[in-house]
């Protein structure tokens, strides 16, 4: 549906969109035939996707209703899609090409899309879990785990997008390291509480391995901070 200026109006998700779209950046190769039979190949980016289709950012404008071939440049997977509409600005500039996959797929758009779906499902599940009648510690563990998955999924998505765009990935790796340190600190404090309440003993499975791992970690951290103090 378009307004008087020709711009595509927002589509009601409940009425026409069969599943949530997620913001991603997936490089794709697009192939289609013009009405005169001429073949066209263009490199584009999918920026909003779901298992049924997505929105492509591209220079060319395949005709609405035409069938195009998409190739995911990260996974090399291919899929056929139908052009549903062109999203245009008020001055008729093409902002995106909305496409519908002929065969719905959860895997075509790649790992980033699947991570976003999985994370979204976990967040919805977290909201649906009611605190009443559930052990508070178990609920806290679940929420902490969801938070960790969400942050790690975001970092993985950012890493893939930067690699695809040949941008520096060092910042993302440092964020992953910082998140690992934060999570380790959180777990250490929780274990201190478990030790104080005698829920962890010398007979707890894995306790000896944990002791050796923490001992090695402590020695390296001690060396790190001694080096800093000497500067």
Account of the 3D structure:
The protein has 231 residues and is of the alpha+beta class. Helices cover 42% and strands 23% of the residues. It has helices at 111-128, 136-164, 170-196, 207-230; strands at 22-33, 39-50, 53-57, 67-72, 78-88, 94-101.
In short:
This protein is α+β, with helices and mostly antiparallel strands. It has helices spanning 111-128, 136-164, 170-196, 207-230; strands at 22-33, 39-50, 53-57, 67-72, 78-88, 94-101.
What are the key terms here?
231 residues; alpha+beta; six-stranded antiparallel beta barrel; disordered N terminus
How would you write the strand order of the largest sheet? 1-2-3-6-5-4
* Helix/strand/pairing category: alpha+beta
Strand content: 15-25%
Intertermini distance: 66 Å
In round numbers, the mean pLDDT is 83
Largest sheet: 6 strands, antiparallel, barrel
Global geometry: elongated
Radius of gyration: 25 Å
Low-confidence stretches: 1-15
Helix count equals: 4
Q: Give the fraction of residues assigned to helices.
A: 40-55%
Assembly state = single chain
Task: Give, in order, the helices and strands.
Answer: EEEEEEHHHH
> How many distinct beta strands?
6
